[in-house]
Amino acid sequence: MSSKDKSKKNSSKKEYYKNKLKKSLMATFEDLSSESESEEEEEANMALMASADSDIELDD
User: Fold this and answer.
1) Angle at 20 between CA 28 and CA 22, to 5 degrees
2) Where are the alpha helices (H) located in 1-60, listed in sequence order?
3) Which domain holds residue 2?
4) What average pLDDT is seen over the chain?
5) What is the DSSP-derived secondary structure letter of residue 21?
6) Between the CA of residue 56 and those of 43, 45, 46, 47, 48, what are the distances in Å?
7) Tell me, what's the pLDDT at 36?
8) pTM (2 decimals)?
9) CA 29, 30, 33, 39 torsion: positive or negative?
10) Based on the structure, what is the number of domains in the chain?
């Protein structure tokens, strides 16, 4: 095997793992992003429920 073939092989392996790493990082980021969004939604729902409870108490 010539040195040119070896460098081509190493380069393609490098690209393969580089792409695999990018995909895994993107998936991780998306997971973190969706967790953050659901926490924000939960917080907003709690605030809305507290607001609704205080409105009911004022009506009584």
Assistant:
1) 50
2) 3-59
3) 1-60
4) 79
5) H
6) 20, 16, 15, 14, 12
7) 72
8) 0.41
9) negative
10) 1
What's the N-to-C CA distance of the chain in angstroms?
A: 87
pLDDT per residue over 30-59, tens digit each? Answer: 877 777 777 888 888 888 888 877 767 666
- Token representation of residue 13: 């392996």
Q: How many CA atoms lie within 13 A of 24 on its CB side?
A: 6
Distance CA 54, CA 48 (A): 10
Rounded Cα gap, residues 40 and 31, in angstroms? 14
Rg (CA), the chain: 26
SS3 60: coil
